[in-house]
Design a protein that fits this description.
Blueprint (H helix, E strand, L loop, with lengths): L7 H11 L4 E5 L28 E4 L4 H13 L7 E4 L4 H9 L5 E5 L9 H15 L4 E4 L2 H9 L16 H12 L2 H7 L7 E6 L8 H14 L3 E6 L5 H10 L6 E5 L6 H6 L3 E4 L8 H8 L4 E4 L5 H4 L6 E4 L4 H12 L2 H15 L4 H18 L10 E3 L4
Parallel strand pairs: 1-2, 1-12, 3-4, 4-5, 6-7, 6-9, 7-8, 9-10, 10-11
Length: 394
């Protein structure tokens, strides 16, 4: 892994505590483990939950050559591990080592999708290169169906794929959201929002990629029919000034609340007091905030350029997917949920059930199946596999 995260840290701890195999995590970023700056935000997320405790982890040496030598000796030169899983193909050092490794079984976890436009020449060139790069890997770990489709387009067979999804810590989020839901009226009152108001929630970075302006336009159209509604935006970023100006122009300043960046333990509060979650990103290969909102019992409206919407959002059952760029379609989705409050609550319950199928336990089962397959492919190795390290960045 490149650096710890609130997404994988709890999973790694659960693997160490309960999985039928050993785990070693190699972190490539050695000097900013606690304060890794998010390039889109300009500051560290500063996770307030444990992300590096409860499992075995190793920090790689600093410096390209020293790190290459260390990783070659530790992870690639011999069949020391049952499986080395490399998340993604974009990191040069790990990609080079993988091409020269012959004895060590390798897997690749990735979230790449092919739904975004790009020049035909670039697409052809990238696929030519990737087909050669991917030949070295025995198994692949797509996070969802769109990534599976991407891999099939590159000639990877279904038998080589074992889904390794991005999964939120469902139990933690659900329990905290329920606690805050019981305090909903008071929390809304503190924001100047009346009880009974239909609350639309966005949790996103204020950057063009995550497309906050589309959410503003969609909410503006929606509120014309549902004036007893409010918008809560959780996040920050370089577009914050533009967002405030846009709210003033649309005369939405009284209806919207920009509450700033929220640390992980605070997110369930916002999920717990809202009625629907919207993810309008123009380019998001997955979007784990969809998992989080669903674990907290919210229906979801997401653009079709959010990868997770193709797996987690079931049309009319727990939410809706709309064409990216169509703010009127977004507004229509909100109207369909707000017009039938009881159905909206049922959709939220359905979201929670779906989210719990995308779980840490499912990831552990998938990894166990992968190791069993690798053992069968390598008859000259013992059937009991060794530790499984995660060694690269996405």
């Amino acid at each position: 892994m490149s650096d710890p995260s609130n997404l994988d840290g709890p999973l790694f701890s659960k693997i160490a505590a309960s999985a039928p195999f050993d785990l070693t995590v190699y972190y490539l970023q050695t000097d900013q483990i606690a304060q890794k700056v998010d390039p889109e935000l300009g500051f560290s997320p500063n996770w307030d939950i444990p992300v590096v405790s409860g499992y075995r982890s190793i920090l790689c040496p600093r410096g390209f050559i020293r790190r290459m030598h260390f990783l070659w000796r530790e992870c690639f030169a011999a069949s020391k591990y049952g499986l080395v899983i490399v998340p993604g193909y974009n990191r040069l050092d790990v990609a080079l080592l993988a091409q020269f490794s012959r004895r060590q079984p390798l897997g690749m976890r990735l979230d790449t999708v092919s739904i975004y436009p790009e020049p035909p020449w670039k697409r052809r060139l990238k696929r030519m290169v990737l087909k050669q790069v991917l030949r070295r890997y025995a198994v692949f770990h797509p996070v969802g169906s769109l990534t599976e489709r991407f891999l099939r387009e590159l000639g990877v067979s279904s038998a080589q794929m074992f889904r390794f999804p991005y999964a939120a810590d469902n139990g933690y989020l659900s329990a905290r959201a329920e606690r805050f839901r019981k305090e909903k009226d008071g929390l809304l009152a503190a924001l100047g929002i009346q009880a009974g108001t239909f609350v639309v929630l966005g949790v996103l970075k204020f950057v063009p990629r995550e497309n906050p302006m589309e959410l503003l336009r969609g909410f503006c159209s929606f509120r014309k029919k549902f004036p007893d509604s409010a918008l809560i935006l959780v996040g920050t970023g370089p577009l914050e000034g533009e967002i405030r100006e846009c709210l003033a122009t649309m005369r939405l300043s009284e209806a919207a609340r920009l509450v700033g960046y929220a640390r992980y333990s605070e997110l369930p509060k916002w999920y717990g007091i809202s009625n629907v979650f919207v993810h309008p990103a123009a380019r998001e290969p997955w979007g784990v905030s969809v998992n989080e909102a669903m674990a907290c019992g919210l229906p979801v409206v997401a653009s079709d350029t959010v990868g997770s919407s193709h797996d987690l959002v079931i049309e009319g059952l727990n939410g809706y997917r709309y064409p990216s760029g169509d703010s009127e379609a977004l507004a229509n989705c909100l109207e369909r949920i707000a017009s039938r409050p009881e159905q909206g609550r049922e959709m939220g319950q359905c979201s929670e059930r779906i989210a719990h199928r995308w779980s840490h336990e499912g990831s552990i089962a998938s990894l166990s199946a992968i190791l069993h397959k690798i053992a069968g492919m390598s008859s000259d190795r013992p059937s009991k596999r060794g530790p499984t390290p995660f060694t690269a960045s996405s």
